[in-house]
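Q: Second attempt. The first request was missing the SMILES, so the protein and magnesium ion are both included now.
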Amino acid sequence: MRELLAGLEEEGVPVRLASGTPTGGAATSPADSGEAATAVELAHAAARASPLDVGVGIDVEGRVCVHHAKRPADRPVVTTDATRARWCGHNAARLVVGLPLKEPPEQLEETWPQH
Amino acid sequence: MRELLAGLEEEGVPVRLASGTPTGGAATSPADSGEAATAVELAHAAARASPLDVGVGIDVEGRVCVHHAKRPADRPVVTTDATRARWCGHNAARLVVGLPLKEPPEQLEETWPQH
Amino acid sequence: MTLLVGVDIGNSTTEACLAECGPDGPRYLGGALTSTSGVKGTADNVPGVVKVVQEALSAAGRDQHELAAVLVNEATPVISGLAMETITETVITESTMIGHNPDTPAGAGLGTGTTVAFAELGACAPGERVICVAGAGVDFEDAAAGIAAARDRGVEVTGAVVQADDANLIVNRLPTPIPVVDEVTLVEKVPLGMPAAVEVAEPGRTVRTLSNSYGIATLFDLDPDQTRLVAPVARALVGNRSAVVVRTPSGDVADRRIPAGTLTLIGEHARLPVGVDAGAEEIMATLRRVTPLADATGEAGTHVGGMLATVRDAMAETLSDTGGEQDAAIQDVLAVDTFVPQRVTGALAGEFALENAVALAAMVRTSRAPMEALAGQLRSALDVDVHVGGVEADMAVLGALTTPGTRRPLAVLDLGGGSTDAALATGDGEVHSVHLAGAGDLVTKLIDSELGLDNRDVAEDIKKNPLAKAESFFHVRMEDGTARFFDEPLPAEAFARVVVLGEGGMRPVPTRHPLEKVRRVRRSAKHKVFVVNALRALERVAPGGNLREIGFVVVLGGSALDFEIPDMIAEAVAAAGVVCGTGNVRGSEGPRNAVATGLVDEHAGRTR
Amino acid sequence: MTLLVGVDIGNSTTEACLAECGPDGPRYLGGALTSTSGVKGTADNVPGVVKVVQEALSAAGRDQHELAAVLVNEATPVISGLAMETITETVITESTMIGHNPDTPAGAGLGTGTTVAFAELGACAPGERVICVAGAGVDFEDAAAGIAAARDRGVEVTGAVVQADDANLIVNRLPTPIPVVDEVTLVEKVPLGMPAAVEVAEPGRTVRTLSNSYGIATLFDLDPDQTRLVAPVARALVGNRSAVVVRTPSGDVADRRIPAGTLTLIGEHARLPVGVDAGAEEIMATLRRVTPLADATGEAGTHVGGMLATVRDAMAETLSDTGGEQDAAIQDVLAVDTFVPQRVTGALAGEFALENAVALAAMVRTSRAPMEALAGQLRSALDVDVHVGGVEADMAVLGALTTPGTRRPLAVLDLGGGSTDAALATGDGEVHSVHLAGAGDLVTKLIDSELGLDNRDVAEDIKKNPLAKAESFFHVRMEDGTARFFDEPLPAEAFARVVVLGEGGMRPVPTRHPLEKVRRVRRSAKHKVFVVNALRALERVAPGGNLREIGFVVVLGGSALDFEIPDMIAEAVAAAGVVCGTGNVRGSEGPRNAVATGLVDEHAGRTR
Ligand SMILES: Nc1ncnc2c1ncn2[C@@H]1O[C@H](COP(=O)(O)OP(=O)(O)O)[C@@H](O)[C@H]1O
Ligand SMILES: Nc1ncnc2c1ncn2[C@@H]1O[C@H](COP(=O)(O)OP(=O)(O)O)[C@@H](O)[C@H]1O
Ligand SMILES: [Mg+2]
Ligand SMILES: [Mg+2]
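A: Got both inputs this time. The predicted holo structure:
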């Protein structure tokens, strides 16, 4: 969680409070807020709640997901594990700021078909 | 109301349904939905409900207001009367599309202090 | 220990340098700067000088009666002028074409047929190919219904031209889309019963057929002679998202050159005329042929002629005030190619065309200034000794040499508002100087006119600051791609607009041009004036015109504070192996205060 | 009535034109096109020709046995080659500088001091001015706490250089901000105990002090000789948002020219060598001096030398296959200035520098083709009469004249993949032609290398289509500002990226460059190749080299389908009063099918 917030902060996304959690403009739903919920579900819910339309979810299994309010619920931007939380923070921030996502797209949920 | 929708359509904002009203991507709240509500209140409520963050309100007195979900409730983008409904439609669409608003800014709620 | 203040009266700015001089040389206590009052080198400068001296004293916590002397440079009056002459004009006669970029044309493709008023559609026979022309007051639902009904009857309505902003509304209501061009203000002037073509390109693309002479020839079955006549129409439509061409019997587009008058450049040996419409390159080549310029005149009745006369008259008046009697001869001109967006005569949809123009800066400078009056008044105003002396160029070099890392041979490039001055100090202490027309004010003027702003303040802000685009109510994206956030929502007027982040905060640029276009205009204006003038100036002061003989170039003056001009100049002279950078006078003042510092330095050296 | 098909075998494309010829001349039934199989003018072309003939027949609903004859142009083999020679190299020795644009530097301003490892901060004495260098593994909270503690003790930590992407995190945790540059990959190579400066510019701005030679001189107290040495450092830092300069005793940046070998241009009378590193302009000037070119050779061991040898060998082999014995001499070269982004040797943060390069296109073309073998095999494959004949240029002119609105004197500009060909038909029917190296393939190559894509397909897509930027998951903004919406969300990879909207749908451009930069590269590549070649070609065919003597210019070939190249050429020749546009062969085919149409036309004329 610290790494996630660090990623958001480093990108300079202005910090706002959402559901009592300090976030970098994107609402985060910590795992303990919904027992059976998956990271994807949490992330989408957070994104929909966020005024900036971006949400991050972490589930009990340690999966981390970055989502956008306007994407279909089952098609998040990124899903990965806790070791890449910092990277998720960066990319959640970049969705807000409108910058291309960081690093190679191997982790991205949807990439372009290779031409 | 027809003129408002015409303005939205002409700008080519994709049509979506919100609260049962056909709109050009922006949710519109017809006057009859809230008795005492002003156009500004209706517009802000519509904007917050809209997935595109833009709303238009028309009140019983025939005032028309264009609002954006992220602006403070009491500081809409445009407030004018029904004779300029078409122009409101255009500008609501332009907020969605990311184009500068149409025509001279005399009608805009907030302009720049003259330098 | 004596307390001295050196004062440099520039065309725009008066600068002071305060120092305490003892046996070990000067100890600098600080400086100050203010706007110059009146024409440089005249008694009108007194209030500015008094102000700047007092500010320098109070900043250093010193009192006026401690002051031993004020050192003023020999400020020779300089008068400069700017003028612009448009040399092309696009005129549309007989409404032959409409090529514009309405925000919302609709229905990509090409339609051809005879122009028919909307009301007459019902009278068209099946099989007829027509272009529908709908004027003011035709409702979009009626328009769509009428067109659809005609098509049902077999009338081939292949395109439409409408007055209102209705194109998408109409096309959305048709069973099959046709190209529709809207926002044609003067639609009632579209000739009816004539063969016409309507083309709308896909989003992001531009018309292909109507911007091609042979495309028009194919559509209207033109012979080679007719094709030749229609070629300017095609050329004028290049780059438009949508276009209409109506083939009228006598229709014609003239892309004509306006006779812009002649400029006569008078050198010591030759006197060469050059047409202003020949363009900047030709004018500057002619100037090189007569160099050194002794005077210049412009044809009466033209902007350039008027400007040269005004400059000369202003100088004559300045000199007569002070009883001097020198001739006010134009000493340098700089011509720059530019363009001005101008409303096309005869256009039906408020079309603008970019017309070619030549901007000209000119300068008169006297060799000897009427400084006695100024010095006298200054003496009584400040009640202190006033020494006039030190040639400006020599002082600038002395001041520039206080920049760390420099030594002779050194060239100074002083980028001011009205003129670009250069001086070269060779190893043996000699100083050669040159004063060229055209500097910061011309850059501002070019930005103003090329963007059609008609607002000098905004143009000056654009010149001095990076641009951004307001991408939402809460953030802007800077021209380098970085985002900046705001807590307060931006005004509606700013939304999706290009803004400039100046000292007075954010200000919208009143233009439809995209950010990149504004940036390009800004950079090219700086390039056309300062890179050209820097090279001209250095070539004229360098031994044998060879830049390689100059060891160090120190860039000074108000325009050296610019965030990109010094880099452009450094880039341009890099090939010659010269060290070039912005001056840092006394290791602390940046490119300001060189002359004022030089005055103190020289005085200290003399008295030691 | 006889059914004929004309076939044009081009370097890239084989085109067919089907027609029925009767007493009233040809009636065109349609055409077809496919990729050329093998080297143009060799028997390898047969499969392509068979394919295109069958496609043309079946499109018109005709059967192969109705066909009376196939007309093939005299397709002379053309081999062209492209090579690129980098002529400058930026090398950093002794880690003198780090100038890069990390996404997130922090704390605008300038800091100076001695470099100290983070772990050693505790050992610094109060009053010491230091720059903290934090390597891998230093957590941002520890880094901030350590710096804050040192500052509390009076150690002046004025800036920091860190390895991780942590700059904002650190600065946000300091009581007062200092400039911090992050993402310095090889931070362990930063020399410690040396004077250094760290500069971070405000968002949207670039460094001012470290990009100015005198700024560096001021900071490090350099004498003029040292300043001269440091000037290339300053120049290399121009345009960066953040920079670090460490003053090492023997530090040095070389902005050196790589000896790129010599090109020898052999004319009929002269044989002139020219260094490739002299740049394109010099090479083309030398070429003009030896014109007409008889041959060219490049220094062995250089890219250009290798390319010229390869081109010559390939042609020799093609000719030997067919028993011909002509010499394979280079007939034309086109040199173009370009640049290649290249990783800086010795850089600490993965910096790239734009190195200058020269791209060269060369061409060998035979005068007489080994067509008999091709014709023979074609005859047996299709079981029909095959006529070889018609000089390609003559046929192109005949085909071009079917464009509405044209007549002689007419010039054809055929913009292909490997070569730009021009032919002029004067009023009396004579045809002069010229074949120049460099066309569409060189444009693609320039786009590929200038953007550092290393992907020919993407470069080809960029060449042919307008750009857009994905501004959200649901819409893109086209390069002209119009927005396009999608119902399906775009892939995450596309977000905020530059994309190209090609035939195969949307494709992201794998680059960090902003849209405008990609657009600029695209347009300048087209300009450098096609405008230059169009003018070269027209000047060589025009009577007396005077463009005004040409009445009509018809632009043909695959590259004439481009959405901006024909406009650029029309613009360039407009001044000469020539009517110039894209061909519309037979009033319907656009710029394609001219030679195939010409073959039919000529045959019909002869048999009538
Ligand atoms: N920060 C700045 N950036 C760019 N230009 C500037 C800046 N400050 C002043 N200028 C320009 O400098 C010019 C005045 O220069 P200055 O040296 O004061 O003139 P002079 O030498 O004629 O007294 C004006 O054109 C002004 O726009
Ligand atoms: N739509 C298009 N836009 C731009 N360039 C194109 C287009 N179609 C083909 N080309 C270019 O045309 C060139 C091939 O031209 P072509 O006339 O077929 O060659 P050749 O005459 O050598 O057979 C290639 O460089 C290709 O990229
Ligand atoms: Mg000055
Ligand atoms: Mg070809």
